[in-house]
Write a structure and sequence with these properties.
Alpha-Beta Plaits; single chain; elongated; 10 helices; 12% strand; two-stranded antiparallel ribbon; 233 residues
């Protein structure tokens, strides 16, 4: 568990795919995420968690994206330059008695540019909307809900009513709920048996769904046998 209070999962399930058919039907652009939110998102990401197949295969790219977001300067409203990224990684590698590979870093930065996750102008790096969204997807992948030794006999309900013009947020929320083990009651109502307040608070904050999403903890639910069977209670 990190200092944000979240527990990292194994990350084997895919997040952030959304409704592919819906996205093919119209031009879809990655949402703009504020610099402040990106820094909070970055805190959740643990690139050292190599048990995740996605992180293992994209380790260097994610590491650089995390460096870029972590070192955003709120005073100058700018991301670190390439030379500063070089210095930060070189310093860390030396502390860990590792050999700094400048060529590999250059290749990783060029790869991020080709994928349009970053832009580089006069050695100054800019995190694109696509790059920010990539970090968001990874952060959601690493949130998981832990089954306690003893069930507290409480039910957690998540309901939402999200407008069509921000449908990508509905897609990301639905993907998270399904992959986090929630049981679907209907298209906009999901249930879980175990504590998940922190995880729901995080996704509500990051996706800015305060006015469109509600979380409830209840003691009793009518005809709960199907839910007890679902969670093996």
């Amino acid at each position: 568990m990190d200092n944000t209070g979240f527990v990292f999962g194994n990350g084997d399930k895919k997040f952030g795919n959304g409704d592919k058919n819906n996205r093919k039907a119209k031009t879809w652009e990655p949402p703009k995420i504020s610099h402040e939110d990106i820094k909070e998102i970055s805190k959740v990401i643990d690139v050292s968690n190599k048990s995740s197949a996605f992180i293992k295969s994209h380790y260097k790219s994610l590491e650089i994206l995390k460096f870029i977001s972590d070192y955003f300067d709120e005073v100058t409203q700018s991301y670190p330059s390439i030379s500063r990224i070089n210095w930060l990684i070189r310093t860390r590698e030396e502390k860990e008695n590792k050999k700094f590979n400048k060529l590999r870093l250059e290749r990783t930065i060029n790869s991020l540019k080709r994928k349009e996750l970053i832009e580089v102008k006069n050695e100054q790096i800019e995190l694109t909307n696509k790059g920010s969204f990539e970090l968001l997807k990874v952060s959601l992948e690493q949130l998981t809900i832990i089954k306690p030794l003893v069930w507290d006999r409480l039910w957690r309900l998540v309901s939402y009513d999200i407008p069509k013009d921000i449908g990508w947020k509905r897609d990301e929320l639905r993907n998270f709920l399904q992959n986090a083990g929630f049981c679907k009651i209907n298209d906009s109502l999901y249930i879980h048996a175990y504590p998940c307040e922190k995880q729901i608070k995080y996704i509500k904050e990051i996706l800015q769904l305060h006015e469109f999403m509600n979380f409830f903890t209840v003691k009793e639910i009518e005809n709960d046998k199907m839910f007890k069977d679902y969670f093996s209670l």
